[in-house]
Records
---
Amino acid sequence: MQLERVLIPRRVRGFDDGRPDAQAYDVRLDGDRVAAVSPADGPAQGMLLSALVDAHVHLDKNYTVGQVGAAQGDLFAAITRMAQARAHWSGPDLRARMTRALEDAWQSGTRAMRTHLDWNERDAPLSLGVFEALRDAWAGRIELQCVSLTPLDLFAGASAGEDIAREVARAGGVMGAFVYRNADLEPKLRRVFELARQNGLALDFHVDEGLHADANGLALIAELAVRMGMAGQVSCSHCCSLSVQPEAQAQATLAGCARAGLHLVALPTTNLYLQGAWDRTPVERGITRLREAAGHGLRGCIATDNVADGFYPYGSYDLLETFGLGVQVAHLAPATDWLDAITTSPARAMGLAWDGRIAPGCPADLVHLQARDEFELLGPTGRRRTVIRAGRPL
Ligand SMILES: [Zn+2]
C-alpha cells in the first residue's frame, strides 16, 4: 500500500531530513510496517499521523448522563451523583458501555487508551473485572491501561491503601488519586508515593481540578516525584488552578514538573464545561498552561476525559475533535505543531512500546487525514480520515 503526497507533521516524524512541515512525502507500507518514507513532488493531498493515544478517559462512567443528569459546572455535585449511580451498575451494563466507547475510539483511530476506574473503597470496584476482560479482548486493537481513581483521604487511613496498591499491581494497573485542597496534603501524598514504590506502580493523579489559586497539589507531586525517586513515572491531569496562579508561581511549578519528568494532561472538554461561572458567561477557561509547560521542555498531552456523563454531558471518543477544542481554548498554533499532544506525548506517558514517531520500520498503525494544512485540520472535512491498522485500512 502506498500513501501519496502526505504531510507528516514534524513532531510525529521519526526522521529528520530538514524539510519543513509543508512539504509532502510518499509513504510505502509493507505488511504491518512502514517500509519507506520519501520526499514527494507537488502539493499535499492529506496528512499522516501515527494512530492516536488517549491518556485519560473514564470508561466506567460514560453514557450515563441520561440517568444522572448534567452537573452544569458543579464538579462535586457530579462526583456525588455518579457515586449514587455507581451502586446500580452491573457487569453487563459496564461491559456494554465500555465496549461502545472502544468501538468509537477504534473507528476514530485510537491505538491505546488509559482509563481511570472509580475506586472509592478498599475493595476493587466491579468495573475492574469487566475492564480486565475487555483489555484481553481488545489486545492488538486498542492497548488498554487502567488507573485506580481513589479519593486521596482514603490513603490516610490504616491499611486500605495497601490493599488497593496490591490489587492494582495484580491487575497490571497504575495507581491514582483525586487531589484537591486536601488537609495534610503532604503526608497523604507521600503515603501514595510509598505505596507505589513498594508495589512497583506508576502514578496518575487527578490534581487541582478547580480554580482556587491555593490548590497547589501539582507542585508538591512534582517535588515528591523527585524526592521519592519516581521521576518520569508520574502523570498529572487537569491542573486547572495553575491557570489562575500568579505567573511566577506557575512558572516555578512547571520548572519543578519538568525536573520530575512529569506527564501533564490537559482535558479541554470537561474543564470548559465544569470550570468557570454558570450563573453568567464564563470568562475563565480552566485549561492548564500547556504553552508555558512547553517553554520548560514539558510537552503535554490532550485527552478525552468524560463522555456523556454527569461531569461532561457531550462528546465522543474522537480524540481529534477534543484536540481541535484544545487548540482553540489554549491558543495552540500552528495546530500541526501540537499533534504530539495526542500521539507521541501520551505514548511516552503511558510507556508504550512504540513512541508514535513515523519512520521506516515503524508499525503501520496510522491515521490518514484529508486535511492538507494546519487550518483544514480543525474542520470537519479535514478531520475525515482513513484509519490504517497493521497496514490495512479499517
Ligand atoms: Zn478524569
---
Amino acid sequence: MALKVYFDLLSQPSRAVLIFLKRTGIPHIERPVALRKGEQNSPEFTKLNPMRKVPVIVDNGFVLTESVAILKYLATKYDVPQFWYPQEILQRAKVDEYMAWQHTNVRFHAAKVFILEVLIPHMTSQPVDENKLTKALSELNGTLDMLESMFLKNQPFLCGDEITLADLLAICELMQPLGADRDILKDRPKLIAWRSRVQSALGKTFDEVHSFLYQLRNKARL
Ligand SMILES: N[C@@H](CCC(=O)N[C@@H](CS)C(=O)NCC(=O)O)C(=O)O
C-alpha cells in the first residue's frame, strides 16, 4: 500500500516532507489536513497523532510524526540520491547538527514573525503588534547571522557542496514570512544566492508546494 502523507501547505515542515516525496519520486497518497478548519482535531487524525500536528506519514501501517524523523526515515528507507542524507559519518553529522539546531532557531524565529504578522491579525481582526514584531525580527536577524556564519559559510549549501535535508527544512521555514509579503533575506546576498541554488535544485516542485503561500503573499500586496 502506498505511503500516505498528512500535511497542510501552510505548514513549513509539511512542505519539506511533501517536496521531498515529490522530488525523489517516492510513491505516496496525499491527505491534506486543513489546520485552519481544525481538521487536526478530528478523531481520525488524533488517533494518528495525539499531538494533533502535521506532518504525519503512514507507511504500510507504520505511523511516524515529526518532520525530521520522517525525512531521515524516508531518506534511509527509500532508494533516493545519497546527497540528501549522506552516509559518510562526518557529513551526516553536520546535517543532523542543523536539523537539531533549527527547531529552536530558524523555525522558532521565522514562524514567530509569520504568527505575529499573519496568523494573529487574521484570527483576532486586530492590527499587527509592532513592538512584538520589531523584537521578533531582531531575534530572527540574530538567527540568520548564525545560519550564515555557522552553517552556510562559503559553501554552496548549508552542509557542503550539495543540497541536503538541512537546506530543504531551512528554505521551507525561511519562506514562511512571505505570507505577509516579507522577504526576510532581502538584505542578505549570500543567503539570497543560497536560496536560488536550493530553488533550482528543487525544480518546479518548490513553487507547486509553495502555491498557497504565494496566494497569501499576493493578498498581502493588495
Ligand atoms: N516538530 C514538529 C512540528 C509540527 C508542527 O508544529 N506542525 C504545526 C504546523 S507547522 C501544526 O500542525 N499545528 C497544528 C496545531 O498546533 O493545532 C515537526 O517538525 O514536524
